[in-house]
Design a protein that fits this description.
This protein is of the alpha/beta class and 257 residues long. The chain is built from twelve helices and seven strands. The chain has helices at 2-11, 26-36, 44-49, 63-70, 90-97, 128-139, 152-161, 163-180, 185-205, 210-217, 223-233, 236-256; strands spanning 20-22, 39-41, 53-56, 80-83, 101-106, 116-122, 142-146.
């Protein structure tokens, strides 16, 4: 994810040389330097000392250890920390880093393609300018939605954080069903993926709401009507709602660990 963000920043005009990426692995540092042209380091403290913005893009279980390294940089009061460490609350981050500007973000995997959908919440120490900077970071690899309360990031997890998997499952099941209907695996895969791409593009680029788009395709007593009716009669909407609630609730549980 850090690589995706760096690529996005560079694509938006940031000079690669002003981006320092920290990684303990020499091979990974070499790869980052060769492919992106960024500055690399194995020393988090020295890298963060010169930085105005610090991106914490590590696994939750190593946040505390990494925080200890970063704090060796000295005074962090004039810096902005953006964390994409899943489940690590602002309270926990403030306990580790002190009373500094912290933005907590919940990105999703399409960010790797520059198509991310990310939720953001900033703490009370973050200025308006720093919030705008955090939003600019996020928008380098997709869209950014700043929520009003931190707990809403758990709802973001249910919508966009885990959401790609919901669509992947739909694609998977459509391919399986298409094969059962007699289409070749290659043909049904191509048709399904292009249909998913086309539908998402129509919904994203137009000014027509998804329910209206669905109704335009669904002629009374037609083929699509038969399919939609079968879905609704089998609780399709309820299944989606229950899945998203389960996702939100699990996110809350993980945040308490």
């Amino acid at each position: 994810m850090a690589t995706a963000i760096a690529r996005g920043l560079i694509a938006n005009g940031t000079d690669p040389s002003v981006i320092t990426m920290v990684d303990p692995n020499l091979d990974q540092r070499t790869l980052l330097q060769d492919t992106l042209g960024v500055t690399v380091s194995e020393d988090a403290a020295s890298a963060c000392k010169e930085a105005s913005t610090i991106l914490l893009a590590v696994k939750p279980q190593v946040v505390e250890a990494v925080a200890e390294q970063i704090k060796l940089a000295g005074d962090l009061s004039d810096k902005l920390l953006i964390s994409i460490a899943a489940g690590i609350t602002l309270e926990a981050l403030e306990h580790l880093f002190g009373a500094i500007a912290i933005a907590r973000a919940m990105p999703n995997t399409p960010a790797l393609l520059g198509l991310g959908a990310t939720g953001l919440f900033v703490n009370a120490y973050t200025t308006t300018a720093q919030q705008a900077e955090a939003e600019g970071f996020i928008e380098a690899f997709g869209i950014c939605v700043t929520v009003e309360r931190e707990e809403l990031l758990d709802a973001v997890t249910a919508v966009s954080g885990s959401g790609p998997a919901f669509y992947f499952l739909m694609i998977e099941e459509m391919i399986k069903a298409g094969i059962k209907l007699g289409l070749s695996p290659n043909d049904v895969r191509n048709l399904t993926l292009q249909t998913a791409l086309g539908a998402a593009t129509m919904a994203a680029q137009g000014d027509v709401e998804p329910d209206e788009l669905r109704q335009r395709v669904t002629s009374p007593n037609g083929t699509t009507h038969a399919a939609i009716t079968a879905m609704q009669e089998n609780g399709y909407g309820e299944i989606i709602e229950k899945a998203m609630i389960a996702c939100r609730d699990r996110a809350i549980q993980l945040g308490k660990v």
